Amino acid sequence: METNSVQISLCGFIRHTQPFRQLYRSGLDTYIIRLQAEGECEVLIDGDMVTVVPGDLLLFKPQDIYDLRIGEKKSPLGHSVDYFVMCTGEWVDQWWNLRERPKKVRIADDGKLQSIWQQLDLENRRLDGGSPEILEALFKALCLLLDRAMEEAPASSSASLLHGLKMKSYVEEHATSEIRLKDVAAHAGISVTRAVHVFKIQFGYSIMQYAGQIRLAMALRLMDNTNYTLERIAEETGFGSYTYFHRVFRERYGVSPGNYRKRE
């Protein structure tokens, strides 16, 4: 997509099922705007590889060294999923310079961002190349909503981050067992109310959503790599019953576990 003020070279939504690396050792020639939606990855920032989790927005400008690595470390969340756009243009320059833009920032996303991003991707994929006016309007709306999401994201303190990491570790260790909020909170030494709030702010989803993502990721691995029955997989991964596993799996992936396993 190309207009007088915005040029989009690539945009999309991608689920990485294999290890992936994107390296611009000599520096970018475009802006990269990337939102982590699921799973985890790593990116080079100020000489260090930094973990990127759902809710993290990456913002890199032309000339920046860019090194994105996906799948080099196993994540209990499963595959990495992200929205991205690579772009240039006068309007993009002006928008970028409106504020300081750290390379990684946590945002507050109420769903509007991902919806706009999906529409931008669909319009860009049209056989006729998409409407330049619609594409530019969607892109500008995305950028302005990103600014709002950055402004509305609460600042996290180092203490909150420590509590969040303690709870995250506990959930990962106990995902296949019954998880109670009071136990997760107690592990971090904070109240249940505080635990629920801190976890959501730090990682972009609730404690139970995180446990569910881990269980689904484990279930996918067992379905792909073992001959276990679906009932056994439901039990092994902490869902308890096949009925519950079936409902959660279908809600997440749009197909039943049985149909997923029968795919070619």
UniProtKB/TrEMBL annotation:
Residues covered by the HTH araC/xylS-type domain: 165-263
Alphabetized PROSITE patterns for the sequence: HTH_ARAC_FAMILY_1 (PS00041), HTH_ARAC_FAMILY_2 (PS01124)
Lineage of the organism: Bacteria, Bacillati, Bacillota, Bacilli, Bacillales
Protein name (Swiss-Prot/TrEMBL): HTH-type transcriptional activator RhaR
Domain of life of the organism encoding this protein: Bacteria
Keywords, in A-Z order: DNA-binding, Transcription, Transcription regulation
PANTHER family on file: ARAC-FAMILY TRANSCRIPTIONAL REGULATOR, HTH-TYPE TRANSCRIPTIONAL REGULATOR EXSA
Gene coding for it: rhaR_14
